[in-house]
Amino acid sequence: MNYSDDKLSPKQDDFYNALMDAHSGLPEAESHALNARLVLLMANQIGDLETLKQLLAAARDYVND
After folding, report:
1. Closest-CA residue to 46 (of 56, 34, 60)
2. Does some domain include residue 20?
3. What confidence tier does 64 reach under pLDDT thresholds 50, 70, 90?
4. Would residue 1 count as lying in a domain?
5. How many other β-carbons are positioned within 10 Å of the β-carbon of residue 34?
6. Cβ neighbours of residue 33 under 8 Å, at least 6 residues apart?
7. What is the pTM of this model?
8. How far apart are CA 32 and CA 9, in angstroms?
9. Is 20 in contact with 34 (CB distance < 8 Å)?
10. How far, in Å, are 2, 10, 31, 53 from residue 41 at the CA level?
11. Per-residue model confidence (pLDDT) at position 5
12. Is residue 4 assigned to a domain?
């Protein structure tokens, strides 16, 4: 699966701004909790465990680059 494909274009900046707005004013712990809830909500939307595992691996690999 290729995760470099941009499926949000041309709205990726709009999503990033909405994400940053959602975090605005939150203490660090609440910001982390928001991220955790968001991940779980998105995972529920995706709903496919193999896809989710591939996404986790891709995110982890990105950190290691």
Report:
1. 56
2. yes
3. low
4. no
5. 14
6. none
7. 0.78
8. 26
9. no
10. 22, 23, 15, 15
11. 73
12. no
Output the six-digit token pair for 25.
């004013």
Match 């465990």 to its residue by tokens.
49
What is the reported pLDDT for 4?
A: 64
Q: Is residue 27 part of a domain?
A: yes
- The two tokens of residue 20 are 């940053």
Give the Cα separation of 7 and 40 in Å (integer): 20
- The number of domains in the chain is 1
- Burial class (CB within 10 angstroms; exposed 0-12, middle 13-18, buried 19+) of 42: exposed
At 18-28, the pLDDT tens digits run 999 999 999 99
Q: How many whole angstroms from its chain centre is CA 13?
A: 14
Which structural domain range is residue 19 located in?
A: 12-64
In DSSP notation, 5-61 reads S-SSTTSHHHHHHHHHHHHTT--HHHHHHHHHHHHHHHHHHH--HHHHHHHHHHHHH
